[in-house]
Write a structure and sequence with these properties.
Elements lengths: L2 E8 L4 E7 L3 H10 L2 E9 L4 E7 L5 E7 L3 H27 L2 E4 L2 E4 L4 H22 L3 H25 L2 H27 L11 H16 L4 H11 L3 H15 L4 H5 L8 H13 L2 H57 L6 H15 L1 H18 L3 H12 L4 H22 L4 H11 L3 H15 L5 H6 L5 H13 L2 H58 L1
Antiparallel strand pairs: 1-2, 1-3, 4-5, 6-7
Helix pairs in contact: 2-3, 2-5, 3-4, 3-13, 4-5, 4-13, 5-8, 6-7, 6-11, 7-8, 10-11, 11-12, 11-15, 11-20, 12-20, 15-16, 15-20, 16-17, 19-20
């Protein structure tokens, strides 16, 4: 059934827009009229997001894949980010030329901009241009960083506009504020189309799991695939999922194979999902495979939520700590130290250190805010290199507290994914290729690649896992038992269940240790600030009493 995009007025005369299914534009108008929506413009839309390209897989073999084109708003956002870099440099030049000159002891000294200020602004402009370039390449993280970056740049011009009615600053605030807003819209559009940088992650496990379970039930009841998708569209929770399902239905009605149609929506359906559907179609058990996928995605969502919830508490505590210290150092400490300096009291060493840090934070706050964002850019660039990515992921597995949790989570994901694929009738080699993409850690991926190569050479699965030093030894021994008894799938499922329980234990242990560590950290930092302020005050009061 065709899909029509419309613009209209509702019963209250307000503008409305959306999409609707209908055989013809006239039928679409009739449907909308019954809903008291009066069309002003309507046109048929088709799924034009998909594009095909030839790429090489992890084994160096060429294959044709389908990816999503970037939404137009994302292209505009990346272009505006690059333009904003030029605006930053232009503003810097104007500030440099208009800064006053102050005569001191007969010598002209330039006041206003310092060398560090100029360096920071130039680095900010370069960073903004690089972020814009990454946005044009479809990197969602660059949109988040650019939104924060633009918000920082818009804050001071907006303040000058409000307090001094400086309309030049108002124009800058409009540019940077508009860029931040476009970044947020672009993030939403990227999620809607599933065009998130071509990775192999499902962006909404809960939504995809619910859809898959509904589709499995409908197909098991004997309903044709296209009609089943129509029913799922009516149950879709988000506009992005609804749009994706409409696109799938259009592909199916045009004669496209279901698995090939899923490839056109990489943000919602990863390689595991697509290959399992392809295996289900080949075996004639699509409904069973879909039920298994739904259960797998639901379990992965639970596991991911466990890890996120475990990390949320320390992140919140650390954020609050940083904000409290920044507020004390930026607003409270300078006022107190001004009083002490005015009284000409000799400052002890802790107070001198505190004054120096406070002055740096007040003067060069821009470095403290933008430095981590620029560092994130270079880190993301370095992570594109396989050698650095391997070292980085290996180091993450060795981190105290967090490393143990990441290792157990990855092992659980490996075991359950491998088991699900084998139960679906997929050959072990193909299953390992898919599992390699799913585990999300380069060190584990290297081990899985070694397992894949060893099978080609005629050896077993367990030996490379035992020798890896990455997988716990018990995993290798359990897989060896499974290979010998012919119950590899069952043993892998037991490994997954065991490590799910280990993840729960690790989470409880980590949160139990982090809480006192954060409390001690807060006490030491805030106590040190208070002590550095109180010591000279006590000296002043003692001197006054004498």
């Amino acid at each position: 059934m065709p899909v029509f995009e419309y613009k209209a007025l509702n019963a209250k005369g307000r503008a409305a827009s959306g999409v609707i299914d209908a055989e013809t534009a006239r039928d679409a108008r009739e449907k909308l009229r019954h809903q008291k929506i009066y069309v002003t413009d309507i046109k048929e839309v088709r799924g034009s997001m998909a594009k095909r390209e030839v790429v090489k897989d992890e084994l160096g073999q060429k294959k044709v894949v389908v990816s999503s084109e970037l939404p137009q708003i994302v292209t505009y956002t990346g272009t505006l980010a690059i333009i904003s870099a030029g605006v930053m440099l232009l503003h810097l030049v104007l500030r440099w030329r208009s800064q006053p000159e102050v005569a001191v002891a007969g010598e002209a000294l330039e006041a206003g901009l310092t060398g560090i200020d100029v360096a920071v602004k130039i680095a900010s402009a370069i960073a903004a241009g690089l972020f814009g370039w990454m946005i044009l390449k479809g990197k969602t993280w660059a949109l988040f960083v650019t939104a924060i970056f633009a918000g920082i740049e818009a804050a001071l011009p907006f303040y000058n506009l409000v307090t001094e009615s400086n309309y030049v600053m108002g124009l800058l605030a409009l540019i940077y504020g508009g860029l931040a807003g476009m970044c947020m819209i672009s993030i939403a559009k990227m999620k809607d189309t599933g065009a998130d940088e071509g990775n192999d992650k499902v962006q909404s496990l809960r939504e995809v799991s619910a859809f898959t379970r509904q589709l499995a039930t409908l197909i098991h009841s004997g309903i044709p695939l296209a009609q089943a998708l129509t029913a799922c569209i009516e149950q879709a929770e988000s506009p992005g999922m609804s749009k994706t399902l409409r696109h799938l239905r259009e592909q199916i009605t045009q004669g496209t194979d279901f698995a090939n149609a899923l490839e056109t929506c990489p943000g919602y359906f990863n390689s595991l999902y697509i290959n399992m559907v392809r295996a289900g179609q080949a075996s004639g058990r699509l409904d069973e495979v879909l039920s298994r996928i739904a259960e797998y995605l639901a379990n992965q969502n639970k596991l991911r939520n466990k890890v996120i919830n475990a990390m949320m508490y320390p992140i919140i505590m650390l954020t609050i700590s940083v904000l409290v210290v920044a507020a004390l150092m930026t607003f409270v400490v300078p006022k107190i130290t001004e009083i002490l300096i005015a009284q000409k009291i000799p400052l002890p060493l802790p107070t001198q250190i505190l004054v120096t840090i406070s002055a740096f934070m007040s003067t060069y706050w821009e470095i403290l805010l933008k430095g981590p964002l620029v560092g994130m850019f270079f880190l993301q660039g370095a992570l594109q290199r396989d050698s650095f990515k391997l070292k980085w992921d290996t180091a993450k597995l060795k981190m105290p507290l967090v490393g143990d949790l990441l290792r157990k989570t990855a092992v659980s994901r490996f075991a359950i994914t491998f088991a699900v694929l084998l139960r679906s009738g997929m050959p072990a080699l193909e299953a390992l290729r898919i599992v390699r993409k799913i585990v999300g850690n380069r060190a584990l991926q290297e081990v899985i690649q070694g397992v894949h190569d060893s099978i080609i050479e005629g050896t077993d699965i367990s030996t490379p896992i035992k020798k890896s030093g990455v997988f716990p030894p018990v995993v290798g021994y359990m897989i060896a038992v499974g290979e010998q008894t012919g119950e590899l799938e069952q043993l892998l499922e037991r490994v997954a269940v065991a490590y799910d329980e280990e993840v729960d234990i690790s989470i409880q242990r980590m949160t139990g240790l982090i809480e006192p560590i954060m409390i001690v950290f807060m006490a030491v930092v805030v106590g040190g600030i208070v002590a550095a302020v109180i010591i000279p005050l006590l000296q002043m009061s003692t001197g006054g009493m004498r």
